[in-house]
Design goal:
alpha/beta; elongated; 285 residues; 41% helix; 10 strands; Rossmann fold; 10-stranded mixed sheet
Length: 285
Amino acid sequence: MKRILLPTDFSENAYNAISYAIQFYKDVECTFYILHTYTPATISSGNVLDSYSALKIYEIEKEAANSNLKALEETINKEWHNSKHTFISTSAFNLLIPELIDFISKNAIDIVVMGTKGATGAKEVFLGSQTMYAIKKLKCPVIAVPSNFKFETPKNILFPTDYKLEKSNRYLDLIRDVCKEHSSKLHFLNAYYHLPLEEEQKRMKVFLDAFFIDNAHEFHIGEDQDLIEVIKAFEIENKINFLVMIHNKHSFFENLLFTPVINKMVYHTNVPFLVIPSEERIESL
């Protein structure tokens, strides 16, 4: 039984991510936790923390949140009824990221599925700040779903890697399960093609080949061009509809997502992607 956390702010973007998760796991027994957090502006500012008005505002916000969650759950059950799926809705008076961290720990969550906000003026803005912070701060995997992406079975999964990952990573099984559930082909792309692999990297490549022996998979080397262009071209040529990345403490992924190169990378990445924290990163959080 998988335990999946679905944060929502009741936007179309959030509902799109929920719909994706439900279809992604349609053949898997799951408990979906739908979480909404709220912090009324007047209370957040501290202006009326101890006043009667603050209490009333809190009660109004809580009532509205629970009402919206009930309506959302009714919509989900009507549109996506599945006997394998159970839904539990909850609201919390808290900021999103601290609540996610606490909720994941208390409920043994396996994975978080969140929407990403589309461009608002600047086309290069792809990931919402909340999704970005979730990727950086959470100890469990996150699937980020682009706001306009409609579900496609992930038949071709791209895994860009420099082969500098840990055999002990507890979430490698998750990738294997995804491939099995969707009969997917996994494409390993060596984005650092211009450097010969070190011995440890070679051993990791051999390990991955054996680890995914029961899944269709293939190893690729990028052409002699910009890293972003390598990934973009590969996605188009191979009809990639799902992306996987390992988030190391200091990594190729870190360089992609948390430096200005994100402005190019995510603008050209229009498919959902699964971000898996490394063991080192989990221990450091």
